[in-house]
Amino acid sequence: MTRYEQLAGMIRQQIEDDIWQVGDRLPSLRETVKSSGLSLMTVLQAYQLLESQGWVVARPQSGYYVAMRLKPFAAAKGGKGLNLSENVEISASIFDVLQACKDPQIIPFGSAFPDPSLLVEPKLSKTLASVARRFVPHSSLANLPPGNEKLRRNISRRYASYGIHVSPDEIVITAGAMESLSFSLQSVTSPGDWVVIESPAFYGALQAIERLRLKSIAIKTDPHTGIDLDSLEEIVQKYPIKACWLMSRFQNPLCSTMPTKHKQRLVEILNQNQIALVEDDVYSELYFGQEPPEPIKAWDTENNFMHCSSFSKCLAPGYRVGWVAAGKHAKKIQQLQIMSTVSASTPTQLAIADYLTQGGYDNHLRRLRRQLEQLQSQMLRAISDYFPQSVKVNSARGGYFLWLEFEPPFNANRLYKLALAKNISIAPGSMFSTSSQFDHAFRLNTSFAWNETQALAMKELGGLCHALLRECG
Ligand SMILES: Cc1ncc(COP(=O)(O)O)c(C=O)c1O
């Protein structure tokens, strides 16, 4: 953490402890320079950070004042009960929503991708150009599955930096996380098998289940603690579950992160019943605090957990480079890959491997996390300013989504259509389930640069929510 972030953290704590109250003038920059021993620039950066996070407001020629606090939002409720699907069919509706996000005229609050301008990393482009100049045809053969060795070693080192042992030999490089997730699921199932997922779940899980002709049991998932473990325990007694696909941190779309105790109990349930885990962890590097929460893979004593991630959300979406730390399933996954897409693209694997070796990735990530945290605060403030009071909001200390709920019969599919007519996209809750139980909810992407257009779009969206609620009576 930088010095200005430390100072901002300290002042934030003082505001939370009511040492400084709403409307109070904070000590001037000069006074803080004197009391903290930090430079004027550092103090100014700290105050600006607090301002961007909505804790203070600057008044010209007067100083920084403690801002009105956002009213706490009511907590989102998430899903109910179980949802068994013997015939999962979801792809068509999702395709329409995703297509809408491609149109540059549309404000992409429904997008699953981070704002591309956050991921401009000139060093990586240079590395790709240099790789292309040096590229020899033999390279494509040398980097067939499991993929480029230097890249796998670099990924192993990143696991090690978080205290997790993953050997380069168990890593398979894939074309993005979607491919690693899909192959992981396929490696432990046959058509007709039962698979457990979250409710609501990332629509990629629903699509993979549909494509592999599996049967799913979606278990209610709490916006704060994740998948319901009592229900899971009951289900594994009744059904021959082959795999469990979930996200233990910064879940898409709910933004839930499982507490450590829940993760450990989940591991026990899976191991006792010999159920393979497909852990989707694409937002792992986008945590806001000092340390990330741990992935479930950290407790994989049986080598039966497949931890899937990629560089798509934090570095280079278009490069399509992902991986799975696949434990004992690594070989099977390589076979599946050879039989379908053959391998991930070689030049982009080499470029990311060189980029990681050169250093600078951590600086990029620190900057990105800071920006995402600030952008999330702006969106929360806009919701507080423009949305009906009855909105329930769930946010995470990481990633770039917010999950919003109103009470039924509010219908987010209708909100989606009305918003799209005004060139604003949202991701309606129906994308994340084969049931209609999330029709009153939607997901917003918070990563887009905050400007007047975004603010107006949020105001417009809030207005539509007011109108829909009035219709509901
Ligand atoms: C939760 C989740 N998993 C996986 C993916 C796919 O990642 P990739 O683009 O690396 O294939 C996404 C992308 O939206 C996602 O949101």
TrEMBL record:
> Mind telling me which residue stretches traverse the membrane in this protein?
none
Tell me which residues make up the HTH gntR-type domain: 1-69
GO molecular function list: DNA binding; DNA-binding transcription factor activity; pyridoxal phosphate binding; transaminase activity
Tell me which CDD domains the record gives. Answer: AAT_like (cd00609), WHTH_GntR (cd07377)
Respond yes or no to whether keyword Coiled coil is given for this record. Answer: yes
**Coiled-coil residue spans:** 358-385
Provide an example Pfam family for this protein: Aminotran_1_2
> What keywords appear on the UniProt entry?
Aminotransferase, Coiled coil, DNA-binding, Pyridoxal phosphate, Transcription, Transcription regulation, Transferase
Residues of the signal peptide? none
Recorded family membership: In the C-terminal section; belongs to the class-I pyridoxal-phosphate-dependent aminotransferase family.
Would you tell me the protein name for this molecule?
A: Class I aminotransferase
